[in-house]
Amino acid sequence: MLMVKTILVCCLFFISLFTLSHASSWNWFWWNEKDANFNPSNTVNDVPKSPIILVPGDGGSQLEAQVDKPEVVHYICQQKTSEYFTLWLNLADLVPYVIDCWVDNMRLLYDPETRKTHNPPGVSIRVPGFGNTSTVEYVDPSQVSLAGYFNVLVAEMVKIGYQRGINIRGAPYDFRKSPLELDDFYKNFKSLVEETYTINGGRKVMIVCHSLGCPTMLYFLNRQKFYWKNKYVKSFVTLAGAWGGAVKALKAYASGDNFGVITITALTIRKEERTFPSLAYLLPSDKFWAPHQTLLSTGRKNYTVADYQQFFNDINYPIGYEMWKDTKELTQSMDSPEVTVHCLHGVGLKTMSSLRYSYENFPNHDPLAESSDGDGTVNLASLRGCLRMQQQQLKPVHYTTFKGVDHMAIMSDPNVIQYLKRISIYNPNEEQSSWWETIWGGLNQFYDKIRHP
Q1: Which of 35, 179, 243, 438 is the 20 to 30 Å CA partner of 377?
Q2: Dist CA 176 CA 217 (whole Å)
Q3: Closest Cα to residue 231, out of 56, 451, 11, 27?
Q4: Is residue 334 classed as helix, strand or coil in its secondary structure?
Q5: For range 206-219, the mean pLDDT
Q6: pLDDT digits (tens, 9 = 90+) for 439-449
Q7: Which residues does 375 contact at the CB level (< 8 Å), separation at least 6?
Q8: How many Cβ atoms sit within 10 Å of the Cβ of residue 22?
Q9: For the chain, domain boundaries
């Protein structure tokens, strides 16, 4: 009887291998006729393309709001609107007095019981353009050049045959939130990957992320089954990934960050920045900075990654410490995504590495900043975090740096775009699963079928 059961289990296992939901899982075993016209000698314009999904970073998605508020901070602020309006980004909102209305709408409220955030009373916020590229090409719908994001990259890919909404798509999300509050986004993103794969003839998808979008996507990939990733994901392309956070996030908590907009003060922006769990997620991680390394000094007190509780108490924002506790172990250990990785970032630029405040005015003034290597925003140690994946997975982790290319310019740098064009060429030979990938994926799927018949 035991032998019969063993035979049945083995039969079910091999049946599951042959029904991994697409014949391309066994392309190493036979040739797929639809790929017979592939010719590696063709130019990048002529060859088939792998579909791309773009995932923006902090501030890289448009946000829209509708309000019906019990009260407003100024008489000039709208208390009720009949339709949704652009909240992020409308450059006209970033002027004195009007910006107070904007801050009051953008901020989040943290619930220490549920450990979740929500919008202020009477404010509804949505993320437009999911699946398209329009709202990640420009963060201001007016498409002024100052608000360009993925616009140059998309335009360059269109030149070689990509089509917006078909094989180059966008996945905007509420960048104020940490991965813990993005369940709906992740559900929709998974469906977007599957849909994009299907409408492009079963070609695996390249996930191209920037900055905060990279650890946000690592969190997603870490929670997907191997057989799903092996079927749908060609590669994980990370542009300036903020893997271990950045000292700049510490400054935003202490005295704010006005993003270089000279018409507004950093302290005004600080009111809403502090409320974002994603900012806590981007604080320097104790897995990347040593516990004795001073990140902020007031002359009387030095703060390291081991002093966050004291830091948040001293700036009179203890909720920030709670949000940091929620987010400090999400992806900072750099667990393998189990897909091919292309890690690209700039180097050779002065990047904020430590902050010096005066004790008397801390934290309500701009600090003196010391600098070290990085991309102008994210510190080098954090950018290099992707290298930790090399020891954790069999799939390759390709690592390339670009001297003098800053955190935002990486999305429009000609050498970076040329790199993306090269790896976006669809090669059916590369998409064939190896024997170990097929067997391991089959075991994963077989186990799932047993657990969830």
Answers
A1: 179
A2: 15
A3: 27
A4: coil
A5: 98
A6: 655 666 655 66
A7: 240, 345, 346, 347, 349, 351, 383, 405, 406, 407, 410
A8: 13
A9: 42-428+444-451
pLDDT score at 347: 98
Q: Can you give the length of the chain in residues?
A: 453
d(Cα 371, Cα 356) in Å, to the nearest integer?
12
Question: In 164-317, which residue ranges form alpha helices assigned H by DSSP?
Answer: 183-199, 213-222, 226-232, 247-255, 266-273, 277-281, 308-314
The secondary structure element, H or E, covering residue 46 is: none
Residue 366: C-alpha distances to residues 32, 270, 353, 414 (Å): 61, 12, 15, 35
Percent of the chain at pLDDT above 90? 78
pTM of the model: 0.88
- What fold is seen in the domain 42-428+444-451? Rossmann fold (3.40.50)
> Which are the catalytic amino acids?
211, 375, 407
- Burial of 194: CB neighbours in 10 Å, binned 0-12, 13-18, 19+: middle
Q: Are 189 and 224 in contact (CB under 8 A)?
A: no
Q: What is the amino acid identity at position 419?
A: Y
**67 class by beta-carbon count within 10 Å (0-12 exposed, 13-18 middle, 19+ buried):** buried
pLDDT tens readout for residues 21-40: 343 333 333 333 334 344 54
pLDDT band for 47, please (50, 70, 90 cuts). confident
What residue type is assigned to position 365 of the chain?
Answer: H
| pLDDT tens for each residue of 202-212 | 999 999 999 99
Nearest to 306 by CA among 337, 283, 333: 283
Assess whether pLDDT exceeds 80 at residue 437: no
